[in-house]
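Students often ask what a 'structure token' actually looks like in practice. Rather than answer in the abstract, let us consider Argininosuccinate lyase, a protein of 458 residues. Its sequence is given first.
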Amino acid sequence: MWVMWKGRFSKPTADLVQRYGESVSYDWRLFRQDIAGSIAHARAQLKAGLLSQEEFNAIESGLKDILKDIEAGNFSWSRELEDVHMNIESELTRRIGAPGAKLHTARSRNDQVATDTRLYCRAEIDEILGKVRHLQRALVMKAKEYADAMMPGYTHLQRAQPVTMGHHLLAYVEMLDRDADRLKDCRRRLNVSPLGSGAIAGSTICLDRHGIAVELGFDAVTENSMDAIADRDYIMEILFDLAVVGAHLSRMSEDVILWCTAEFGFASLSDAHTTGSSLMPQKKNPDVAELTRGKTGRLYGNLTAVMVAVKGLPLTYNRDLQEDKEPLFDSIDTVKLALDVNAEMIAAMTVNTARAREAASDPMLLATDLADYLVRRGVPFRKAHELVGKAVAMSISTGTPLNKLSDEQFASISNAYGTDARDVFELTKAFAQRTNPGAPNSDNTRRRIAYWEGILSK
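Now compare that with the structural description of the same chain:
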């Protein structure tokens, strides 16, 4: 087997070392980026007079043929050649001969892998952004369907104040939009070309780095060869961004899980997005939501793994950096699938509007509105808070719903209460008064739905 460093060594690499050190079992997925980078590198060699036109044509044609074979599943990956780079270069040289052996002039696997992973992350971010938008569209569609469906909002998982299902679902649209912004920002930062940085200090054979960058769609070139080789900031950044996506999906999943319990009964998932029990025939389990919640832990673990691997490394390249790829690939695969399946699940979800409105009709949810009523009658808020607290205590002690306390009972607490105090508990009126931007007023919700429909239709 041809070995790239055979001139220095007199013994072959031990089988255990090959097994321990190979990365082709997972970095093979960089083949498109590796081939694109090699063609751009070869074109720069042609412009620099290091390759003849005939040699360049052979390299370009050979690499494109290899690309077709890999995509068709007709390429055999060799563990002995360690990684995606050497597998492709070795096969190219086998097919076209001497020109293939010239391809690696003025580059190292260090700048090669840095280029490949940046190109890979860029392409995956673009795909993930599309999937984020797809889930946002599903949420907006469902929010529009249930824009006026009243339900309790919760703090500390205790009923707090009434909201609508439309308003609640739009909260996740907002979160996902921040996720998209973070990913776009990460894409901008990573879109610089390290190719030409060599192993650590560039090369005495100077190629047109800017021309290579333009061909590969980079915005600029790196300005410090050591930083270019050692940098894994962009991988940590994308892993962080994906972990935050996971956090938001996990929180949404927890809401869905609660809504689907018999105790809440606010929503129901499609049979296509639930599973049954091997023992209990009545069960309908929200496995998609539960798996999303669980897989988020993997996203956190992947981020931590790379940060720990990088934190103690001296400049520049160390083999530890090979450990960045499996966590990267796993997080990307996990988030892409999670976004797809959650979009499908939300689109098929139904809401039990009657059950949700019944829960939202609990008069305790409007206790704060009662305090606002007293404030409008000239009572300082802290005093109003105390007076409403006393009304709540009376409601509980007498077993009388808060909205059914009599004029005499309210008056016994304070003469600040008028005979119109119970009007506060008209749910529709309470919603109509929530007109500030961001509040769950129906008009606000519908305006925001229209906004998102416009954004997401582009």
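One point worth highlighting: The domain at 359-447 is CATH 1.10.40.30 (Ribonucleotide Reductase Protein R1; domain 1). Ask yourself how you might have guessed this from the sequence alone, and why that guess would often be unreliable.
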